[in-house]
């Protein structure tokens, strides 16, 4: 799920912010997002050594841009698989403000629907159990890094979404494979994943570079 074509790992973005190197991961111009797009705005987090950053997650899913489609095609072929579809699940945007500079980056969370084999029912249940046992601790670690685990308007925690789904061999506890999602959107993703794995539109065609405004 290394979803930034520019090579910066999702879990390393926080470190890059703290060391003021986040601009090296920047992709494209600043955005003016469509107000209709769902988003989570995290709290301001103080960075050791000075400065602050804030995380904003914009939620799709959208059709992949050409860049992300190419990335997924290369990722699938690199492991001996074929690309069946590409889903741009969300954009994670981080903004840093310090005493002498302001910078930021956005990171496209992309699911590459490679023709992976499905795992057995027993293996799937085992992976699910691993996640259930790790869930509370994972949310606490997320909150330590990003200020809070996202919640809805009633205070209920967002469910965690596994970008590469467990049924197709996704790692249940890997930071690179987990993103909090609003419950109502999360509940639609299984059906959309089935479309993507079936090589069905719209996930087989390229979308725009900036799906929520430029």
UniProtKB/TrEMBL annotation:
Keywords: Signal
Signal sequence segment: 1-26
UniProt superkingdom: Bacteria
Keyword Signal found: yes
The protein's name: Lipoprotein
Species per Swiss-Prot/TrEMBL record: Myxococcus fulvus
Lineage, broadest ranks: Bacteria, Pseudomonadati, Myxococcota, Myxococcia, Myxococcales
């Amino acid at each position: 799920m290394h979803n930034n074509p520019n090579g910066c790992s999702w879990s390393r973005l926080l470190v890059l912010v703290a060391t003021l190197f986040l601009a090296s991961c920047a992709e494209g111009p600043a955005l003016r997002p469509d107000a209709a797009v769902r988003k989570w705005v995290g709290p301001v987090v103080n960075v050791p050594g000075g400065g602050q950053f804030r995380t904003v997650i914009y939620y799709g899913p959208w059709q992949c841009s050409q860049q992300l489609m190419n990335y997924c095609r290369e990722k699938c072929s690199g492991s001996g698989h074929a690309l069946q579809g590409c889903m741009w699940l969300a954009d994670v945007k981080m903004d840093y403000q310090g005493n002498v500079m302001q910078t930021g980056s956005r990171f496209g969370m992309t699911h590459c629907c490679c023709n992976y084999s499905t795992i057995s029912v027993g293996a799937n249940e085992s992976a699910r159990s691993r996640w259930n046992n790790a869930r509370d601790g994972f949310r606490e670690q997320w909150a330590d890094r990003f200020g809070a685990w996202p919640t809805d308007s009633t205070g209920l925690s967002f469910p965690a979404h596994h970008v590469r789904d467990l049924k197709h061999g996704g790692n249940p506890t890997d930071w690179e494979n987990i993103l909090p999602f609003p419950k109502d959107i999360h509940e639609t993703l299984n059906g959309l994943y089935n479309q993507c794995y079936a090589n069905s539109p719209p996930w087989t065609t390229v979308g725009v570079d900036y799906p929520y405004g430029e």
